Structures
1.
Amino acid sequence: MTNVLVVDDAVVDQRLVAGLLARQPELRTSFARDGVDALRAMAEQRPDVVVTDLRMPRMDGLELVRAVRNRYPGLPVVLMTAQGSEQIAVEALKAGAASYVPKSRLAEDLLGTIEQVVTLARAAEHQERLWQRVTRLRWELALENDPSLVAALVTHLRDATTLLGMSDEVNQLRLSVALEEALLNALYHGNLEVSSELRESDAQSYYRLADQRRRQPPYCERKIYVEAEFTQSEVTYVVRDEGPGFNPQTLPDPTDPANLERISGRGLLLIRTFMDEVCHNPAGNEIRMVKRFHAAAAN
């Protein structure tokens, strides 16, 4: 059974929509006169879909869409548009409405539109429930020295932490920053062997040299190897390059005030600040970073 809440202050339009929805016996319909009544009805029983007019007293359709988006993010809202309401309809779609049906096309399109948005909303809800039941996920990737792939991977793994419900937005951002810094270190300093000192003295020359080496052997033949493992309590990132490495014991302390202004220490400072555990392999071409989510919650 699908519960449909129809929001319209015009009794004639309510009756029209009721007649159309009655063609599908699995639809259960209730009505509200405006956005205020609709929100009150939703608080008592959450519908599966809201079908709303745009021009109503007290709270119009645009305001209702915004309120629904804030209070019930996964609840789809379908707009019923009429001539003269085009601008507010566009604003409501931008604000989060799932679809719209012109009132002149209700008989032809309303039932199909309701079925479409409800099916998609339920699929998203089931997917979210499925992600919440994941106990372990693991990715292994080999990346070329392409900065656009770094950005894509960081976004992909941040989306995974969101779907898994593993952390709040602040810690998701911090995780993303730490991972991106490690990947960029592997790309520029590891595989392409471009020094931080050059970046500090001449940033244009730094990126020009990096771009040249991305097409020159042996640099262009090297890959960045990434392992990302998610459990219910922590995230582990391992980033390894194929450069010559370095002696990790020679790294300057990034938390030393004398080093804070140096470009070369900024990435490591962010990584060590945002992650709970950070270590390098003896060859200096691999970094392992761990974030524990009970620790993140405490922070």
2.
Amino acid sequence: MISGNKTEDLKDAGEILYLPCSKLMDHPLHFDFYQQSHLEGLVTSIREADLLEPIIVCPHGDSYRILSGHYRIRAVRRLKWKQVLCRVVQCDDRLSAVIYCTSNLLTRGLSAMEEAYMISGLVSEESFTMTEIGKLWGHSKSWVSRRLSLLAHLDPKMRKEMEKGFLNPRVAQELARLPQGNDQERVLSIIKREHLGKDAAAELISWWLKAGENEREMVEKKSFSKAPEKIYGSDFLSKNVAKHLSDCIYLLTRLISILKEEKTIGWWPMNQYHSFKTTSIELDRVLKEQITAAGEG
């Protein structure tokens, strides 16, 4: 097993040069889910301050395998960069897996499902033992076993959704609490329909595990806006609405930033903007009526 200090030394070594973005490929332990808010923030940062750290890669055939910097390479591709500064490290597949894992552990807060996916790859692709993986993560062999069990409880269809980047790994972790098969698929369809984040999905799954089949079918048929409070629960509704409002605030803040940078806004979709304003005014009116009625009650 490679020590942490040895891995850091290798990451700091190697030749630094510009490589074509088209020659950089994802590491096999990586899957295609990206937190869009973080990615967009990174795009803005690189646009304004350039790329502060090179992408760490290793040669792999006619291309290069990314060891650290998957988010950064996505960001520079969005900026239409043709080439990017890289640090090229010479290593075999097993060592590249160690560098990839340690880089992610140091730079990102991984979800339990992301860790499980990486650990599964280390076992199946590079023949790491659970003892070796435990030392790499700084945990026991039993901790590694528990992480692997998360994937075992996730339906194969859900796992494919996660691997393709269509399913947030933190939501997948919550889905693993449900029986494989129909339950996971049914709940995921509700999560997608209502655009639920991890916390709201966790609330829904906790409710689903306690609910009867008639209640479940009622929630599947009703849209979020029509579902009565007695089905979802006021706490669940409050958290879900708060999440949607936070998303709206983020998008509006981004729009304001874009507009401040533009000299002309001939492209602005006025019809949709008027509809947006009308809907906002109606929301405010209905909310004031509800608040007034609650005060009088």
3.
Amino acid sequence: MAQSSTMRQRLHAWLSEYAEEATLRWIFRSALAVTIAILASDLASLNGWTVSPDPATAPAEIREDSPALKLPGIVPSILAPLLPGGDKRLVPLPEPDGALAKPMTFELVGGGRLLATGTITPGISQSFAAEAERHGEYIKTVVLNSPGGSVNDALAMGRLIRDRKFATEVEAGKSCVSSCPLVFAGGLDRRAGDKATIGVHQVAAIHSAANGPPRDEMSLAQNISARCQHYLGDMGVSLQVWVRAMETPHDRLFVFKPDELKSLNIVTVAPRPFATKIPSNRPGERRDA
């Protein structure tokens, strides 16, 4: 007790003798701590580590940069350097041009092959259904070359392809990316040519009618994800395909290697050894030169 009392007396004596110095030191340290906190906050904002809510961007739709859609990609992005191949497996999403940038068109050629070329625009599944109804008895294979597009229409096209027992194919050097692999998965038999590109990424955005009622964006994203998983399961494709899609940013593309196409059951038939040119005399078919 005596020792504790002595220490308090010494402290009081020191404060009495150096009161002004102690106060100034305390004020300096407090100001320094506040300054450091403000600088840290500014640095975080400049680097995008924090996000301030902006009422002007109230969601009428799920935007491309919406956190609701990027949640599945956060962990894989952080761990990317630790994964086999790291970011080298991801390539920039190519910008479609020419016929690929236009709404998908359908052309029946020799050998019962229906060429489906272009973007899967909303409603295009109805045009495909009409084409299948008109030439269904002649169509054997749907040949895809597409940058993707509407997920709903891709699912509808894939379901119809399976119902009709059509095969699907991506020819050598052609591409089927984004939502197009959903169409491709519908094929009863699925073939990809040499250097064909088949790739996936996250759903980019879900558009809603202007001034429409508010809706649960996360619920919509999860609903689409669940539908795609059910669909791929029904088509006999590994659900790992959808995992790859959900962990890949919407402005990137995860391209499957030839061995992955087989191991994930994306393709079921070996590529054609060479292109065959079959003369056609079927109604509505184009004769190959």
